[in-house]
Design brief:
The protein has about 140 residues and is an alpha+beta fold. About 35% of the residues lie in helices and about 20% in strands. About 35% of the residues are buried.
């Protein structure tokens, strides 16, 4: 599969949804997140509407602050923290509770996006329902 950076096909919605679910598992302080395609549209989100516009505006504001597009963004307020990471033609935006470990949140986001952008998929580490595992 071609990489996102070369204009190749984007991830399937199911893969992007798995990426969002994985982020929720890895970050207990997560309020919500979304995966955005290179067109700025949300491919998958943890719920609610408005992720496309809000994520695109957040990234545009970060980009306006420098000569190059921002690869990672972190903004903390008294109400919570917002993050964005770009990788392989994709972006992930996330909002967490206040005092999240920023370096860990950014690392998790980057790792998930790399897996998603690689075309190999995000590892599904969700617990198997009882009765579906091996040895039963």
């Amino acid at each position: 599969m071609a990489s996102r950076g070369s204009g190749g096909p984007g991830p399937a919605a199911a893969e992007a949804e798995l990426a969002v679910a994985r982020m929720g598992e890895m970050s207990p302080d997560l309020r919500g997140c979304a995966v955005l395609g290179d067109d700025g549209e949300a491919i998958a989100s943890s719920g609610g509407t408005g992720w496309s516009a809000a994520g695109a505006e957040f990234l545009a504001a970060a980009d306006a602050a420098g000569a190059e597009p921002a690869a990672k963004v972190h903004v903390a307020t008294e109400e919570g923290e917002a993050f964005a990471v770009r990788e392989g033609g994709l972006a992930m935006v996330a909002v967490t509770e206040r005092f999240s470990l920023a370096s860990l949140v950014l690392f998790d986001m980057r790792t998930i996006l790399r897996d998603l952008a690689s075309g190999n998929g995000v590892p599904d580490r969700r617990a198997q329902p009882p009765g579906t595992g091996e040895g039963e």
